[in-house]
């Protein structure tokens, strides 16, 4: 009987810790970075060509313009990705667009709210792209889960940046 109480106590503590995560951690933030051996203007232009998106983010199934604003800020797109055999429809909004300097994108992906802030810098013909990302959830249980998947988020975004580097450098 004592063993069962100990096991139930441990399980209860784990469940409480998991549920407290959603109350304590409201946003999961992380960074990723890549350096591309091309000038900043070429890198920035390639990064913002929606028709090339599938070349460095292989999960993208379709990309549709919903609202294309002059100057890009405020533009809205519908992106369909294939994630583990399931299609996910996302809305992407351009929050900031400063040519050759910065692009900030906001994604609403079925309960996951994500902001990607990309900055571009150049040094001796090598362009560095730095991603500062933040994820939030529309639901409490998803908010409890996100902090535990931070490593997965970093790994995925870093692989996309690495794919982009390979795509642009081989162009």
From TrEMBL:
Q: Does the keyword Transmembrane apply?
A: yes
CDD domains recorded: SRPBCC (cd07812)
Q: Which GO terms of the molecular function aspect are on file?
A: transferase activity
List the keywords (alphabetical).
Membrane, Transferase, Transmembrane, Transmembrane helix
One of the Pfam families matching this protein, by short name:
Polyketide_cyc2
| Residue stretches spanning the membrane | 6-25
Protein name per Swiss-Prot or TrEMBL = 1,4-dihydroxy-2-naphthoate prenyltransferase
